[in-house]
Design the sequence.
């Protein structure tokens, strides 16, 4: 498939954005309000965060729709507005995007389990993700990114759902934990199995995000590179959250330490890099510098 | 099957997460007139302990942990009437109130901790997610639980764990309850800072923590 964003990744490292939810909280998102609600209520502030990431050097930003599947939105009684909230999410990122930059429609986990651990059947997940994907496509997303997946079966349902609702390329990031035996999701899926099954399901790029810090991400990307020839996506956390005595949150891996491992992540094979929890536009600016140095 | 074989099969049924076998072995023990408390302690509990080890070693993952906890529950459902008729409590005073704090709808980790505690023989009162802080106290007062577990997945809601300790102090109830905290952003350091009684990183560690805090539990 010829998709401009994937074409770009063939010629150079593509930079995603960093954390979105914490940026919205910093702009006053009330506790308990789902971030997606702000796509309608405070579009100016959502657009402002996207613009800050583009200004910092992001080639592509992820839409404010991580929790936008109808199953997840149901926790807030917003399930009937899934299409509207996702379409708005994609539109806002589109409006903030300078010419030649890209919008990735973010699809996060439902927060529920499939049978037998939970109550849901894979088709129910796929239908929910299809509804979300259709909203994101209608709003003008260039690609879809199914992210932070801890259950391969759910990720596969998301890929199926997304592909049933739109022709957009689908990227997938799984969340792996580091164990002595290797990298595993919460459900015990391995890197090899995840990469193989996602590729078979039609994902055009796969990767890892969240939980791992940038140092651990180097090893995880190496394992992914051994597992697949697909383009790889890597979005590491800035370490672990630490709460100061005054209640302020910071992350254990500071900016300099985080960025130190970015060239290693790229060298290990990641064609798309970006940040996850604990990162902000200053991280993306520093990552942009690090990548440019790599290429010069 | 003799008693030793039966106990071994019970352990294996839990490790394998075999709900049917776990329940039918319990029924067999009841028919054979075995002491239900001994069956729990020497048959099933070593099984769930082994599952905990396998989880910590990265051999078992969430699906296995849930299956084993379910198998444990199915065995306990058979054995509890027996224990009750003999006036044996599975864990004297082992009542626990648990929930995810207000503003936070994440319940996967909390559910897992609740089922592992149940599997370990505790009577668990699960209030669900997005629970008002006052509700934890009401429930503990009502049920006579002395341990309250607060989960928070978000850095933005974990401050409610701190607020809860303050609320207990205001009501003059701080000494009455053990408050344990967990969730992705929580840590031992956080627990110390807010004056909680303990922190556990995962469901297996939570069971160990609760046990260690029991009177004579070796804390």
Sequence:
């Amino acid at each position: 498939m010829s998709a401009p964003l994937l074409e770009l990744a063939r010629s150079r490292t593509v930079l995603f954005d960093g954390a979105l939810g914490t940026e919205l909280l910093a702009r006053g998102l009330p506790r308990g309000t789902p971030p997606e609600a702000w796509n309608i209520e405070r579009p100016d502030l959502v657009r402002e965060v996207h613009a800050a990431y583009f200004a910092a050097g992001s080639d592509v930003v992820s839409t404010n729709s991580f929790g936008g599947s109808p199953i997840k939105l149901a926790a807030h009684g917003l399930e009937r507005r899934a299409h509207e909230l996702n379409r708005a999410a994609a539109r806002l990122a589109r409006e903030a995007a300078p010419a030649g930059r890209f919008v990735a429609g973010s699809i996060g986990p439902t927060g529920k389990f499939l049978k037998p651990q939970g109550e849901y059947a894979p088709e129910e997940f796929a239908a929910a993700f299809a509804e979300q994907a259709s909203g994101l496509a209608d709003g003008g997303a260039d690609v879809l990114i199914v992210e932070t997946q801890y259950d391969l079966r759910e990720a596969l349902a998301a890929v199926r759902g997304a592909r049933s609702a739109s022709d957009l390329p689908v990227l997938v990031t799984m969340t792996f934990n580091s164990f002595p035996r290797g990298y595993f999701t919460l459900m015990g899926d391995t890197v090899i199995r995840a990469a193989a099954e996602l590729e078979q399901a039609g994902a055009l790029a796969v990767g890892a995000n969240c939980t791992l810090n940038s140092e651990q991400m180097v090893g995880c990307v190496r394992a992914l590179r051994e597992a697949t020839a697909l383009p790889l996506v890597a979005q590491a956390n800035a370490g672990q959250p630490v709460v100061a005595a005054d209640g302020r949150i910071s992350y254990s891996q500071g900016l300099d330490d985080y960025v130190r491992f970015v060239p290693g992540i790229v060298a290990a094979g990641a064609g798309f890099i970006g940040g996850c929890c604990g990162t902000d536009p200053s991280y993306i600016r520093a990552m942009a510098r690090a990548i440019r140095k790599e290429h010069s | 099957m003799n008693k030793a074989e039966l106990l071994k099969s019970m352990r294996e049924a839990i490790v394998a997460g075999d709900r049917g076998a776990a329940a039918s072995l319990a029924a067999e023990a009841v028919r054979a007139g075995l002491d239900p408390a001994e069956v729990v302690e020497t048959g099933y509990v070593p099984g769930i302990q082994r599952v905990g080890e396998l989880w910590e070693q990265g051999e078992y993952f969430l699906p296995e942990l849930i299956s084993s906890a379910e198998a444990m529950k199915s065995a306990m459902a058979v054995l509890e009437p027996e224990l009750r008729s003999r006036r044996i409590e599975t864990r004297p005073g082992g009542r626990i109130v648990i929930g995810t704090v207000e503003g936070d709808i994440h319940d996967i980790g909390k559910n897992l901790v609740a089922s592992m505690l149940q599997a370990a023989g505790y009577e668990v009162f699960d209030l669900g997610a997005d629970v008002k802080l006052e509700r934890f106290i009401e429930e503990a007062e009502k049920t006579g639980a002395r341990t309250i577990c607060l989960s928070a997945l978000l850095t933005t809601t974990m401050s409610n764990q701190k607020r809860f300790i303050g609320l207990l102090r205001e009501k003059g109830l701080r000494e009455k309850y053990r408050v344990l905290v967990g969730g992705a952003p929580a840590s031992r350091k956080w627990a110390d800072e807010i004056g909680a009684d303990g922190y556990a990183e995962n469901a297996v560690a939570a069971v160990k923590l609760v046990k260690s805090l029991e009177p004579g539990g070796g804390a």
Observations:
- Residues 95-213 of chain B form a domain with the Rossmann fold fold (CATH 3.40.50.280).
